[in-house]
Design brief:
Structural class: alpha+beta
Helix content: 25-40%
Number of helices: 14
Strand content: 15-25%
Length: 397
């Protein structure tokens, strides 16, 4: 019995020492253990850069009668089961769902404690914002062209040979070739993943200085946080402004936003997590969609260059590097572009069901905030239904 107790003490002491060393080696793992998978409000534990709203707000028209028939519209969940949208809302623990067509709000639904004004993180939807801002920096001449190397703007990265031949185009295409371990494959893998590391670390610059190159830049697509983080850093260096200030001056105050937004940093005066920490209200997220729906224009002003908008949301003859879901969405310029059926819709998508969907064919914008989402892709069906157009899921899906 004494031997057994002694063994337990040894095992416990070893584990205690192991985890103590682990957390000293990688302090961010304490945050991973404490917060685990972040939710829509986890951003509050990080420093924020505030993006101030417009002086004059644009207001969508609210229909006198909401389209309550949406609640009974049959859509599919992640298991490809047909269910009423009202059940889809509950199953996915949706916090906000707004459907806008031709500038009129036809349907909106919120969970308790949520409204169209509630500031929420959109996770990877932030990547699409980076794309918007890169287009602005190119228009301003702050970034000369996409063929430039990342080290032209961040010379300290030259200390890591992995960055030697990486261009801005490689980063925009997510073909940097940099190593990135995703969170799929079980609890331990998620705990030690780069996904968790770059979300919770208090020093992204230090982590980037250690990253390795595993593929020749421009050859292999891999969805990862590193590339948009680097692009955000480039924009800051190129413009000489904080990312929040640049977003505010070039975009947020010019497009009729009603509420302040924010970018989350890894530490005070640190690097912005442009991969997953952009906070916005649902109604203003819809206005980002409206801006791109209108070719980058707001009223009489061209806010985002039209050619940048067009090349961002249409992959043209480019062979897609990705094909997500039944709609075969391709990741292009940090947006998701469905390739199945008629072209013309596009989306900014984030973890746990954060969505900004735009269907140019029907003039429809859909915003979804969720705690985990119900899966599948009901947005095109909803947009076509409201426009009185036929819709069929693709065969075999």
């Amino acid at each position: 019995m004494k031997t057994f107790k002694r063994t337990l003490i040894y095992v416990f002491s070893f584990l205690l020492l192991f985890f103590a060393c682990l957390f000293i080696w990688q302090p961010y793992l304490l945050k991973v253990l404490w917060y685990r998978t972040p939710d829509a409000s986890t951003y509050k534990v990080f420093p924020q850069e505030v993006i101030h709203k417009s002086d004059s707000a644009f207001h969508f028209i609210r229909a006198e009668r909401m389209r309550n028939d949406i609640d009974t519209l049959q859509v599919r969940d992640g298991s490809h089961q047909s269910i009423p949208f009202g059940e889809y809302f509950k199953k996915g623990k949706l916090n906000a769902f707004i459907v806008i067509r031709n500038d009129s709000i036809l349907y909106e639904k919120y969970s308790e404690g949520y409204a169209d004004t509630t500031l929420t993180t959109v996770f990877s939807g932030a990547k699409s914002m980076v794309s918007v801002l890169l287009g602005q920096a190119l228009k301003d001449g702050k970034v000369q062209n996409l063929s430039q190397k990342v080290t032209d703007y961040i010379p300290e990265l030259k200390a890591n040979p992995a960055f030697k031949n990486i261009t801005l185009k490689n980063l925009l295409d997510m073909k940097s070739g940099l190593e990135f371990k995703d969170a799929y494959g079980g609890i331990i893998k998620a705990f030690l993943s780069d996904e968790a590391k770059y979300y919770y670390t208090g020093d992204m610059k230090a982590e980037l200085m250690k990253v390795k190159l595993v593929n020749k830049p421009g050859t292999v697509w891999k969805y990862k946080s590193i590339d948009p983080i680097l692009l955000g850093w480039v924009i800051v260096r190129a413009t000489g402004k904080t990312l929040a200030k640049y977003t505010e001056e070039k975009l947020w105050r010019k497009m009729g936003t009603e509420h302040d937004a924010s970018w989350g940093l890894d530490q005070e005066n640190g690097l912005v997590n442009t991969a997953s920490r952009f906070q916005v209200s649902a109604i203003d997220w819809a206005k980002v969609g409206r801006l791109y729906l209108n070719g980058g224009r707001y009223k009489e002003n061209q806010i985002v260059p039209q050619d940048w908008v067009e090349q961002s949301i249409d992959i043209g003859k480019e062979v897609p590097a990705s094909a997500k879901g039944w709609q075969k969405s391709a990741h292009h310029h940090l947006w998701w572009i469905p390739q199945t059926g008629e072209k013309g819709d596009f989306a900014a998508e984030g973890m746990l069901g954060q969505r900004l969907y735009v269907d140019a064919k029907t003039g429809t914008i859909i915003v979804q905030f969720a705690e985990h989402g119900a899966g599948d892709y009901p947005y095109r069906k909803i947009s076509r239904y409201l426009a009185g157009l036929p819709f069929h899921y693709s065969r075999g899906n």
